[in-house]
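User: My collaborator sent over this chain with a note saying "see what the structure looks like." That's all I know about it. Can you take a look?
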Amino acid sequence: MTGVIKVGILIKEKSIVVPGDIIAEGMDYLPSLGCFREGKHVVSERLGLLNVDNRFIKVIPLTGSYVPKVGDTVIGEVKDMSFGAWFIDIGCAYDGTLMVRDATEFVEKDADLAQVYNFGDFVVAKIVKITRHSSIHITTKGPGLRKIQGGKVISVTPSKVPRVIGKQGSMVSMIKDGTNCTIVVGQNGKIWINGKNPDDELLATEAILKVENESHIDGLTDKIKAFLEKKK
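Assistant: Without extra context I'll predict from the sequence alone. Here is the result:
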C-alpha cells in the first residue's frame, strides 16, 4: 500500500516554528520572509510566527530590531538638528534625516528650526530614500504625516507590528472603535495613541500590549474583542 503524500501547509498558521521546520510541501506555496524553498519543501530559517497570506508564506521573528525600508511609515523623536535638517530617532542603527524641504511646515530661510520641530517632539514620517551608506531620508509631507500633538507614544517589538495592525487593518480598527482613540502604527514599532481622555488612551495601550504579548495565541482577535467589551 502506497503511503499518503502530504501536499500543502503542514503546520497550522500562527504556530511558532523553528529553523529547519518543514512548513509546506508542493509548489502551490511561495516562500518569502524568514523561509526558503528546498526542493518541494518550504522550510523555516528562523524562530518565529508562521503567517500565510494567500500563496505566500513568511515567518515573522518573535524578537528583533527594526530594519528600515523605503515606503515605511515610522514614528520618531527629534534628537538633533543642524542647519537645514533635523535628525530623528526611528529606532534603528541610523537616525532618519528630515531636510527642511521635506517638512510639513513652511520654513523661512534662516528660521530657528526648533520653532518647527523641537528636541523631544515626535513626528509621523515616511522613509523616502536609503543610500548605500545607510543614510535614511524621511519626509513629513503627505497624507497622515505630521508633527504629533497630544496623546502618547508607546513602543512594541517591531516584528509584532503586523499582528497589531491585523489583516487588512482589522485588529487596530477594532481597538480604535473600542477605545474611541486615534491610533497610528509605525512600522518601527512606535505607536501614537490619542484619545478624548487618559482612560481611553490607557485602555488602548493595554489592548495593544496584550496583542504584543499574546501574538502567538489562536483566536486573538476574539480575545481582544472580549477584553475591550469587558473594560467598557
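A starting point for your reply to your collaborator: The longest helix spans residues 198-213.
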